[in-house]
Specification:
The protein is mostly helical and 478 residues long. The chain is built from 18 helices and 2 strands.
Length: 478
């Protein structure tokens, strides 16, 4: 008996439990960028980086609410790829799915390199490329076993990140209130070193652009929910709690950093959280932060491997990718899709070690704005599909976008402004241009696929693992 399921019968297994999805949602926005990259934002905006992260968080919150409306109404494999396809047609779906796949394939490579560099600090005798390979192989193996295996790894990775942030916030609160031994209580550092916005409010608004990218990952729960027993409830619960994560984890922890350490301290720009732990007198700061950052890296790598495989699987079910990747293992896992993501990711890692930072910088720039393009498409899709549902099945939505349509239009305008700002800001212009090249390559690929496979020969509907209580597909489809 074959160990693989036929493509025509392909259906992802429901291996994720509620606790998995809760932690995937909770830890989805906590990446290595928060622990390290946030120092760059503080250096460019001063203490007002708090405002930059808050504005970016509000934009992300609005996008996720729009996505949640669609995901609760129709939880399907591929999530926003399917919604873009229904709202904007085949081209819109193709571009969305492949941009998102490309984004996370590059995340696989970037996180594998970052993880290898951290391990190299502890294992200097082992070559960097071998350490990166070892990390990729370990997490690829866990993803190949089952969705539940992915969920377990992500559960514990996210738990470490969440605990680290909560402890950091608690210690910071004790210092600010004067309850920490030898502390300097108060918020004087917010204004004592050039003012709250020492580099001007223009710099604060410019810093919103990279901040939005820090929140990328919140949408993964809508993809993972399709492999749970309660997809509608899981998405609804996750999206309702996102505001607390945004305020508590990002804005709160950045407030602690700039309140305890002067924003222009050199160590804040290098590693803001380690800088604060040093002031608090925590022993072994470097080891602690390396461990936390490694956990964040492994979490991102694990999620990226999962996300690339599920998005590729969804692309195959609508005829937008080779059906070779539709095949599932006996445990309901798209192993071929996982292995492709691993292969492309490791090829990027290998090229980085052979040709150095030239390749690594190219990869970073070529995907920098891609996720923002996807977020913009999600927002546009929500408006189109909401209008369609209001005509065909009024009153059927269980979760709705606030103040529709005006807040939806405002969100689209905000996302467009963030993307446009990337084209004009010196620090992000190269990312905008290279991401634009990525978009053009994907659009060109669509034209090739469209000519080889006319729309009339496509499968009628995408694979779904939802129950009959959802809004009917024909109420949303074109």
């Amino acid at each position: 008996m074959s160990s693989e399921i036929k493509a025509s019968d392909a259906q992802l297994a429901k291996g994720l439990r509620r606790r998995h999805l809760n932690l995937i949602a909770l830890g989805g926005v906590i990446g290595a960028g928060l622990f390290v990259g946030s120092g760059v934002v503080i250096g460019s905006a001063g203490p007002a980086a708090i405002v930059s992260f808050l504005v970016a968080g509000i934009i992300t919150l609005l996008i996720m609410r729009m996505l949640a409306e669609m995901a609760v109404a129709q939880p399907v494999v591929g999530s926003f790829y399917v919604y873009a396809r229904q709202a904007l047609g085949r081209r819109g779906g193709f571009v969305t799915g492949w941009m998102y796949w490309y984004f996370f394939v590059i995340v696989v490579a970037v996180e594998a390199v970052a993880g290898g560099r951290i391990l190299h600090l502890w294992l200097p005798a082992v070559p960097l490329w071998l350490l990166s390979l070892g990390l990729m192989l370990a997490l690829t193996a866990s993803n190949l076993v089952s969705a539940r295996s992915f969920g377990e790894f992500e559960y514990w990775f996210s738990s470490v990140k969440v605990i680290a942030i909560v402890v950091f916030l608690a210690m910071g609160a004790l210092w600010i209130t004067g309850l920490w031994p030898h502390s300097t209580p108060g918020l004087a550092n917010l204004i004592d070193h050039g003012g709250f916005a020492p580099l001007g409010w223009g710099a604060v608004l410019a810093a919103v652009v990279p901040c939005v990218a820090f929140y990328t990952g919140a949408e993964i729960v809508t993809i993972a929910a399709a492999e749970s027993d309660e997809p509608e409830r899981a998405v609804s619960r996750a999206m309702k709690s996102i505001v607390f994560r945004i305020i508590g984890f990002y804005v709160g922890s950045i407030l602690v950093v700039v309140a305890i350490q002067p924003w222009n301290t050199k160590s804040v720009g290098i590693s803001p959280y380690a800088s604060v732990l040093t002031v608090l007198g925590i022993p072994g700061v470097a080891t602690i932060m390396n461990f936390i950052v490694l956990t964040a890296v492994l979490s991102c790598l694990n999620s990226a491997l999962y996300t690339t495989s599920r998005m590729l699987f969804a692309l195959t079910t609508s005829g937008d990718a080779p059906r070779f990747f539709t095949k599932l293992s006996a445990s309901g896992v798209p192993r071929r899709a996982i292995l492709l993501g691993t292969a492309v990711g490791y090829a990027s890692v290998a090229a980085t070690y052979v040709w150095g930072d030239v390749v690594f910088n190219f990869l970073i720039h070529s995907y920098g704005a891609v996720a923002l393009f996807v977020y913009l498409i999600i927002a546009i899709s929500q408006v189109v599909l909401r209008r369609r549902v209001e005509r065909s099945a009024p009153g059927s939505l269980k979760l709705k976008m606030w103040l529709f349509p005006w807040l939806s239009y405002a969100t689209i305008a905000l996302m467009a402004a963030v993307i446009l700002a990337m084209a004009f800001l010196p620090g992000t212009r190269s990312q905008f241009l290279m991401s634009g090249v990525t978009l053009l390559v994907i659009l060109s690929s669509f034209e090739v696929v469209r000519r080889r496979r006319p729309a009339a020969t496509e499968p009628a509907a995408p694979a779904s693992v939802t129950d009959e209580s959802r809004v009917p597909v024909d109420a949303l489809d074109t």
